[in-house]
Design brief:
By secondary structure, the chain is an alpha+beta fold. The protein folds into two domains: 118 residues, N-terminal domain of MutM-like DNA repair proteins, CATH 3.20.190.10; 122 residues, Helicase, Ruva Protein, domain 3. Strands 1-3-4-5-9 form a five-stranded antiparallel beta sheet. Strands 2-7-8-6 form a four-stranded antiparallel beta sheet, with helices on one face. It has a two-stranded antiparallel sheet with strand order 10-11. A hairpin with a 6-residue loop joins strand 10 and strand 11. It is elongated. The protein starts with a helix and ends in a 9-residue tail after the last strand. One of its GO terms (biological process) is base-excision repair. It holds the Pfam family H2TH. Keywords: DNA damage, DNA repair, DNA-binding, Glycosidase, Hydrolase, Lyase, Metal-binding, Multifunctional enzyme, Zinc, Zinc-finger.
Length: 264
């Protein structure tokens, strides 16, 4: 699933290509928006909110999308090239100079801009947004003290923008087992963890290749995520994976059993 930095970058790309321009053509290929036509309206701005994209259009309307596991937005200069298989395209928005296509979007809807809260109001502070508040994020994290740290970090109601990559990497940086109850962690450690989350997403939001280790070498860009069976850079122990979350929606976390020992 795309993480907050990926969605921020998508919003920036869309904003730079479309903002301030009149939409000459719109085509929404989902049932609830089949009759929507926004042509003739100016696209005012595109912003991200956690993992959500909000495309605000003249007349007090917002096109809201979520990328889910496999969704994406692509932008081409006119005349546009191919955007992939036609059956994967859920939306097309064209101006005089660019065309944007939303592919495989699990969420696509039209809202009144003043009612965006209905779609994103449940989210916690956005790590890449103007509302970022580390104190509020910490307060939300510890509301469920028995919850595993990895699950608390992934819950967008606590803080918005963290996905599997950052959840695994942050637990490693904190030298903490992903399954540690979040309520047992000292406040200073939580504060440092949130500081690291903010720093990493800010550092990576403009990069195509995400890095959390400080190394520019692609094979050493991440500490544990995706490195199952390979040696930990810190101690040499074999990186492992484990599961968490409800049985109907299991998720994977990567960790070093030596650097992140379980709580005893």
């Amino acid at each position: 699933m795309p993480e907050g930095d990926t969605v921020w970058r998508a919003a920036r790309t869309l904003h730079e290509a479309l903002a301030g321009c009149v939409l000459l053509r719109t085509d929404f290929r989902v049932p609830r928006m089949a009759t929507v036509d926004l042509s003739g309206r100016v696209l005012l701005e595109v912003v991200s909110r956690g993992k959500h994209l909000l495309m605000r259009v003249e007349g007090g309307l917002t096109v809201h999308s979520h990328l889910g596991m496999e969704g994406s937005w692509r932008v081409r200069s006119n005349p546009p090239g191919g955007f992939g298989p036609a059956h994967q395209v859920r939306a097309l928005l064209a101006t005089g100079s660019h065309t944007a296509a939303g592919l495989r979007l699990p969420v696509l809807e039209l809202l009144r801009t003043q009612e965006e809260f209905a779609a994103v109001g449940h989210l916690g502070p956005d790590l890449l947004g103007p509302d970022w508040d580390a104190g509020e994020a910490e307060r939300r994290l510890v509301r469920g003290p028995d919850r595993a740290l990895v699950e608390a970090l992934l819950d967008q109601r606590n803080l918005a923008g963290i996905g599997n990559v950052y959840a695994s990497e942050l637990c490693f940086l904190a030298r903490t087992s992903p399954w540690t109850p979040v309520g047992t962690l000292p406040a200073p450690l939580l504060a440092r963890l949130l500081e690291a989350a903010k720093r990493l997403l800010e550092a990576n939001k403009a990069r195509v290749r995400r890095r959390t280790t400080g190394s520019a070498r692609p094979e050493r860009a991440l500490a544990v995520y995706g490195r199952e069976g390979r040696p930990c850079y810190r101690c040499g122990t074999e990186v492992r994976t484990g599961g968490h979350g409800p049985p109907e929606r299991p998720r994977t976390v990567w960790y070093c059993p030596h650097c992140q020992p379980p709580e005893t």
